[in-house]
Amino acid sequence: MVTGNQNRAPRSPPAKRRGTTIQVSLDKRGKTGVGRTTARQPLAESNHKKPVAGTSDFPGVKDSENGEVVFGKEEVEALLNEVLKLKKLDAKGNMQLVTDYSKRLKLGLKWSFQEQEKLETELETSRKKCIDTETEMERKVVDLNSFLLNLKNENAALDEKLAKESSEKLDALNHHRLEKDARVDAERLQASLSEDLENIRKEKLAVDKQVISLSETYKRLQEYNTSLQQYNSKLQTDLSVVNESLTKVEKEKLAVVENLSTLRGHYNSIQEQLTSSRVSLDEAVNQKKSLDNEVKCLREELQKVREDRDRHIVQVQGLTADILRRKEVTEKSIVDLENLAAKSQALQEMCSSQAEQICVLQHQLATANEKLKMADLSVIESKSKHEGHEKTISELRSNLADLEQQLISGENLRKKLHNTILELKGNIRVFCRVRPSLPDDGVASEAIVSYPTATESLGRGIDLIQSGQKYPFTFDKVFNHEASQEDVFLEISQLVQSALDGYKVCIFAYGQTGSGKTYTMMGKPDRKGLIPRSLEQIFQASQALTAQGWKYKLQASMLEIYNETIRDLLLPRSSNMDIVRTESGVSGRQYAIKHDADGNTHVSDLTLVDVCSVREISSLLEQASQSRSVGRTQMNEQSSRSHFVFTLRIFGVNEGTEQQVQGVLNLIDLAGSERLSKSGATGDRLKETQSINKSLSALADVIFALAKKEDHIPFRNSKLTYLLQPCLGGDSKTLMFVNISPQPSSSGESLCSLRFAARVNACEIGIPRRQTTMRPIDSHLNCG
Ligand code: ADP
Ligand code: MG
């Protein structure tokens, strides 16, 4: 009933968060996530096409110009909140109303899919745009910052250089001034020296003249001296001649004296001669004396002249030395002067080059300042741009948040619609899973299954090839041999979630022995199956709901139906005496199945274990699988020859809202569905197989009777169908896995399984109902 929507418990949080894992709906019709929004027509509709009534007369639905039906959020909300006015005793009318309502809901769902798709694309583009802009901006800011930093560094370096150059320039100017002073001093000195030099030159000239005159005098004096010497020598010669003549005279005197005696005659004369000679001698002596005096005088004069000359020579030498010295000094000062001139030239050159350099530096500084200004301007510009961008980003962000909000509400709406459609549809959903080829299978000659690639049956179709003939099938979902345990669980996680929301959920695996039923339901320690994964999810979700005031109590039971006998798999081993199989298949303890008015099933004496953690459940599963009956057939050494039923009862109570929910999760691993001839069983095994086949055909009978809406549904024909009556009878959400083996030798069995599954899939067996109540005051969790 539609009124079942009232007093709804809060939706459990989705199994996986958006963005990390695709949230999965019960079947792929409403699969969320990017790129997987193709909605599928409900199977009942696709398999039995019925004419669609016009929509223009639907309340809250508008017709667009091109004739398409246009929905709005309000229309959909109105549609959802619409209460169907069903008339008593007018089943046909009511049916028509429900059908119309369902069609409108379908249209609404379609619209919500389109809306969601649009919103997702919009969101994606704005996200991308936002990310692009952000990255671009960040890159720009980083670039500008580094450019600014470079410029600042350059500027600092230039400033430093400028300061250095300025101080150098100051030094150079000081130096230049000093040099200038030195040069002026040197020039002054040079001028005075030049004057001195001039004076000295003049003096030198005068001295030269004097020297020349002195030399001339000296020459003359020498000549005079020579002449005097000549005269002296002449005088000496004369003297010697006189002396000789004197001697001669004396000799003659002697001769005369001699002759006097002898020549007394001559005495007088001689006397006279003597006297005259004496006079002449005196004269000569006087002459000699005067000459001697004259010579002495001359000698003195010569001496004087010589002394004078020597003095002059000394003076000349001193003057020459002085001149030489002066010359040297002058030369030195000329050299100094030249050096100083060269230095001053160099300094001037340096000065001019430094001035040039300063000019260049000033120019550089000006350009750097200009650049800095430009950079400042560009920084300001980019800052304003950045601010603009940031504004845009924040706008985009708020837009994004809005869109996300819209998306979330759209998603919620879609879920609501999807759930409503599922509830209204009411047929058993069927998933098909093909296991991979195993090493034990041997080399397969050819593949017996293929998967159609047409869009309408993508992921839902499977073709079985037998004896060259192709048998096509379509289910709610087909998992090929590559599908992982996680892929499979993702598809059913929402169904498991509904158990927490108060639904009865029943998932069973059907297929021949060795097709992968136990693998799908239980899995392996490293590749966990649906049962452990479902329990983990329920624990996590129930813990997450405690924040909203929900408290959950979980009770697990595990049984198997072997040869039409129920066995408690959680009984302690010692007390489990009743598990001994008897020839008749009747065990010691009888477990009675009872259904109460609320549609809850009770099995008398069955062990119910309160579970509080995943670990506890794991050990229970371990215990159950150990005590489970396994037989040996040709097909599968560890094949289960019994139906395994895991039941988790969920009791939830919300202290805040006084709400109570009761959900049930049944996970069933059916025994192999193969026909008798195949397993080659005899004796006990034959009996087992017969029993299994009987219960499976009872299951089929129940389903088909339900589909035909027969008055009598043969639930009691087998323990399995009786146990599952509330689940099959239309109150629960039921999903069947049909497991297929890829072996060519199993193609016959596979075809049977697929045909059975297809028939089940086409059955409409009822509308699932949630079991929620308002809690009576002071009531406590009642686990029934
Ligand atoms: P069933 O319970 O239907 O008799 P099982 O679940 O025991 O079949 O599977 C038979 C064998 O095939 C097991 O060894 C199991 O590990 C393997 N198997 C089944 N399905 C798969 C799968 N999807 N991937 C890998 N191995 C699988
Ligand atoms: Mg098995």
TrEMBL record:
SUPFAM superfamilies named in the record: P-loop containing nucleoside triphosphate hydrolases
Coiled-coil regions listed: 116-234, 281-315, 386-420
Domain Kinesin motor, chain residue ranges per copy: 427-763
InterPro entries: Kinesin-like_fam, Kinesin_motor_CS, Kinesin_motor_dom, Kinesin_motor_dom_sf, P-loop_NTPase
GO BP annotation list: microtubule-based movement
Record GO cellular component, one term: microtubule
Top-level taxonomic group: Eukaryota
Name of protein: Kinesin-like protein
The entry's keywords: ATP-binding, Coiled coil, Microtubule, Motor protein, Nucleotide-binding
Similarity-based family: Belongs to the TRAFAC class myosin-kinesin ATPase superfamily. Kinesin family. KIN-14 subfamily.
Positions that bind ATP: G511, Q512, T513, G514, S515, G516, K517, T518
Region (Disordered): 1-61
Organism name: Trapa natans (Water chestnut)
GO MF assignments: ATP binding; microtubule binding; microtubule motor activity
UniProt xrefs under SMART domains: KISc (SM00129)
